[in-house]
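As promised in the previous annual report, we have extended the structural survey to additional targets. Below is the entry for Rho GAP domain-containing protein.
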Amino acid sequence: MNKQDFQKSPQLNQPQKNILQVIHDFSAKNMPYYQQDKQFIAVQKGQEVNLLYTATDSVTQQGPTLTAISKYKNWLYVQHKTPEQDSQGWIPSTYVKYLSESENDLFSVELQDLMQFENRILPKFLEESFQLVDSFGKIDGIFRKSASTEEKNQLFSELNSTHSLSQSIIHYYASKQLQLPKLSKDSPLSDILQLADEIQTQTLHVVANLVKQYFNLLPTKLIQQHALSLLLQNQKLPIVERLPKYARILEKNLDFEEFVILRFLLQFLFKMSQFSAKTQMEAEQIGQLFSPNVMDSDVQEIFTFLVVSQPEIEKIYSKWPLPKCSIPTTQVKWKQQFTKVFQGGEGVVLKDFICQDPQMLFARQGNKIQVMNVHKRWVLGKIDDRIGWIPFTCIQINQ
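The corresponding structure token record, generated without further manual editing, is:
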């Protein structure tokens, strides 16, 4: 993007969902530096705003101007309407979240919102589901066979409120007067896993179906269209060339949240494929079943190849000295990746942050950044000889 691009106004796209909830107070005074700018809106935590426009780095002469432009939607143009006044202005996307039917729903919410709400790098539902299916789900037709609609709907409803698979299963069995022995409503999954005979086969098929449904209902597909198009372009390459190419495409074109979850999912699916003698489900079949849930494409061979090649892809990532590729093998708190921000240090930019304001820091994904200071949810960083402010959700500090 050249200098002339910064002098134009952003293209404004009307989004499908338009009700947001403010999760942090914001006004011009909350910026790392204060400036009188009517383009910014002043809102408080808990207030609801209407999303009017999103900004992309495709530019046009129409619509309100924006100080910072980014294809990763760093900024949103919103409206806050009260009986006293009707205000509109820009706000960083990290200060709001989409308002769903229940603000703490598990299904149909963005991965980053869920991770931050639960403070986990792998959502609790996915971790528990992977453990349950891995322990007891090596049964014929897992992921393929349909599940009880009644049980699936009830577990779906329970999970939206509890986010806990173990609690949801216990609640369901209790409603059917099928009490699991020696367990209370707050029993952890580890206790349930000891009662394999008490966990009905049908419940395992329900959980496997809910995992697919979870990914299918994500507002943003795990593998988005721009990454998918690049994968398709390289589909005909020999395997020895395709593997590193696919690994690089995923690392470069997936946001941190999607990249992390995709690797956990591939690891789980490949492991399950090793028990095909019991499940009658080869890696290719599992990949075909999950493909439409994780990306919008009729070409199932892409995701199938990722499942089959999971060990080789992980070997490639293990050789790359990138924080984004150093995913822990055990569960850690999601916010842990931000703790070192407040101590200074070096890091890497996770998302492009494009701006024209001289006090903000223009950054590209993959740039190395020196953290110098922190103000609320903003980081003062240095890239080469340039110093400026950038949202801390756009960077990751080296461990």
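The chain is about 35% helix and 15% strand. Residues 342-397 form a domain with the SH3 type barrels. fold (CATH 2.30.30.40). These points will be discussed at the next consortium meeting with the crystallography subgroup.
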